[in-house]
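Handout, section B. The chain below has 738 residues.
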Amino acid sequence: MKQKPPLAFSLFLLFASIGLVPTVFCQNPQTPSVTVKTVQTPIKIDGIINETAWEGSRLEGDFWQYFPSDTARAKGKTELYITCDANNIYVAAKCYTSANKFVVPSYRRDYRAGGNDNISFVFDTFNDKTNAFLFGMNPLGVMREALISNGGSAPEFLNTFWDNKWTGVSKAYENYWVCEVSIPFKTLRYKDGVAQWNFMCYRFDTQLNENSTWVRVPQNQLIFNLAFTAPLYFEQPLKKPGLNLSVIPYARTGFSQDNTAKDSRALPQNGIGADVKVGITPGMVLDLSVNPDFSQVEADRQIQNLTRFDISYSFPEQRQFFLENADLFGGFGNQNVTPFFSRRVGLAIDTTTGVFVPNPIRYGARLNGKIDNNWRLGVLNLQTADEPNKGIPGTNYTVGVLQRKLFSRSNVSVIFVNKHNLNPEINPRLARFNRAAGIEYNLASTDNRWQGKVYYHQTFSARSRDQNFASGGTLTYNKLRYQISLAGDWVGRGFDAEVGFVPRTGVWRVNPQAQINFYPRNRVFNQHSIGFTHEQFNIFGTGLADRATGLIWTVLFTKTGRLTAQLLNNFTYLFDKFDPTLGKAAPLLAKSTYTYNNFQFLYLSDQRKKLSMSTQGTVGQYFNGKIISISGALLYRFQPFGNLTLNYSFSRISTPTAQNIIYLVGPRTDITFSKNVFWTTFLQYNTRTNNFNVNSRVQWRFKPVSDFFLVYADNYFADSFARKNRALVAKITYWFNV
């Protein structure tokens, strides 16, 4: 039966979201506040809180438990201190412990907080509870910094790839450990003359098995959610921190060799370039890059894609040029449709092989940040190089974004994306230009109970297309005892966002979900929930294409492990031929339908243990056959010098006529000799792509945000171990503050 797409779906979510606005203004009477006093003498950062400047700077209020409960004060006492001078803001913490048996995975910077001892400081410098800077320390003085976007309402909105200059020292004593932190005002973004920020602090204590927060945060929210920050007042309004200019030049040397090419000689990989960061205002930064090079960026971990669709959206952006205010550019749409995906920039199809390959970027400019408390602006322009031998023309990318804050934490944003091929004669099959424009409204209530968005995007190309639009949205109500959400998208057949991510066109999707939470608080279970999910895709003019309906059980164990289990009933209508065994059986016919049931699970063990694991899988029916697919990782920690990890993936897919066994094995060593010298090596043996990969990277951070890298990469055919290609690159970067 043919079904019509939900023409009113986006409007329904829009009116529902705006209609909620009067209900979201509420204040937490238990929220503390703090006044930051200004001192005249800089504080020595040494892990000893003995300067007179710390006197009178201690924050009032004891910490609250976040785990295992969220209704009691923390058992582990934490004392916080904050002060500032004309150039820096200083933070110190005294963290009491029952014993000094700390869990510290390694000396690796930018660790994730879960499963180890650490404390984090969060600064919402524009007082909007939407974007913030995070700085963290552990008992061994290992540092981490991150950017929080979109209110911190989902794990992916914490970006730990961001780097900048600051200092911190930790010291452990008999029954407590201390950290001192100094953050230059030049590292942060804020409005000139401002007298208020928002602040939050949270701590992980593995010995008490306790997570705690300075501001009380309910367990149904993420611990770094910015809805639960508190006012931080400055004794004196902050001034612009003088000239804010950083120059980061690099030099690279090495070689690469492609053994599959006609000319397989080793080619030099020498180059120089530079990045420049200019603080136009305390809230606005201009990033410039000439001949940028990303050879030091760690290679993506390979995964098995058993689906019929592109899954590249699951790989994070790691290039520093794109990270600050990344949500401003890349927050449009969702994982099913977005008009701009930064990983598309600097990547093009080699017409001689038909695969995506890196395309050198000649220059880039990126203006981004806050104009004032209500407006954010982002403008990006990059130019890539001509590569005639690969059929890749030089391309100019331009992106413009403007965002306006509404109400307490909501906003409305517009985006324009332009991709322009400057030399179409290199590949006449490519369109001369491809453009996209969009508008969306993002909802976030003061207490974060209501979240959602509504969007409309449209593309424009030199080749005219019908139905060149996409629209949709989400709406979620999140309380301690239950959550309800409704999401959907409508993607036209002609929606062709070449710089975005659009795995399916000509479809509309609807996805209602609901769950009920229970808090037994016994020796085994800390929390568990039972939920219902239904997701279906319909094709315009045809009807149902895919559907997955089922029950979900999620468990959070008292010892911090986690389990999610799903029973799903699936329906698939094949529009094209498809071999579920991925090459071992005759393809299933187009226009055939399949209904099948399977069981899916995800388990994460207690990360505090020296040996921990994560595993996920699917077992049961699969189209007209059966599937057993399991993937995950085993990790052994030999703290503080690193860990050994075995990533694995195994799939056995069978049909009445054939069977295929696919496996991927990826051992990885991460050795941290100190807080400045790291060595990472991983191997990946993938029968799905017939590839065996070796990647080894040495990093020496000889000064803050200044590094030497030595990177070696090698690829072989997995079936014969004949070499495909190899590369060896040495690179040095240095951060100058002018």
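Note. Confidence is low (pLDDT under 50) at residues 1-5, 21-27. Compare this with the example in section A.
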